[in-house]
Task: structure prediction
Amino acid sequence: MTQKVAVLGTGKIGEALLSGMIRGGWAPSDLLVTARRAERAAQLRDRYGVEAVSNREAAEAADTLILTVKPQDMGTLLAELTPHLPADRLVISGAAGIPTSYFEERLAAGTPVVRVMTNTPALVDEAMSVISAGTHATGTHLTRAEEIFSGVGKTLRVPESQQDACTALSGSGPAYFYFLVEAMTDAGILLGLPRDKAHDLIVQAAIGAAVMLRDSGEHPVTLRENVTSPAGTTINAIRELENHGVRAALLAALEAARDRSRELASGKG
Result:
C-alpha cells in the first residue's frame, strides 16, 4: 500500500475510516488528513501519526481523496480542490444523495469518481459501505475503495441507480433499529421493568437476532416462525404489530427516505 490517501473533512466517519485503514495495514506516513479547525487537525496528527495538511496540499499530494464533508459543503470544497487536482486522481465521495455526475461536471475531464454510502456502525467496524462507479472509474478504482472501506466493515458494489435505495435501507438503517429499541424500552417500562434492565434485555435480543440472521443462513421468516409457537405470546404480539400497520409503516418510511435522497441529488435543500 504505497499510494497516498487523503481524508478531507475528517469528522467521526472520516476518523473511523482513518483508524480502520491503519489497523488494516496502511502506514500513517501514507495518509493525509484535513480538518476545518486547526485543533482538530492537531488532534488527528497526534492520535494517529498522520500528516495534517490543507485541502490544496491534499489535492496536490494524494493519489486518492476521500471527501467526507457534509453534502451542503461539497460545492465549496470542490471549488477549492479543482484548480489543483489532476485528472488521474481517484475521488471517493461519501456524501449522501450527491451523484458522481456532480463531481464529474466540476473536476477535470476524465477524473475517476467512486460514490460510497457507509453508515455510522463504521465507528465500531460493523459498517455496510455501498460502492458505485462513476463514468470514468474502473474495476481497479472500485477495488481501491473496497480496500479502504473494508477496514470498517463490509462492502457491496451496486449500480449507482440503486444508491438512493441503499441510502434509505442501509445508510439510514441504524436509526430505525435505535427507534425500535427506544420504543421497546418504553414498552418494558410500561410492563413494570426498570429502564436499565429493559434496555439490557432488548439490546442483547437485538444482538443475538442479528448474529442469527447473519450466520444461520435461514430466511428471517423461518427464524421468526421458530420463536412463534401456536397460541403463544409471540404470535399475539405479531398480530398487534400487523393490526397497527407496522409493516406498511416501514415500507412507507423507507420510500420517504429514498425520495429524500433523490431530492438531495437534485439539489433541493
Notes: The longest strand covers residues 127-133. DSSP finds twelve helices and eight strands in the chain.
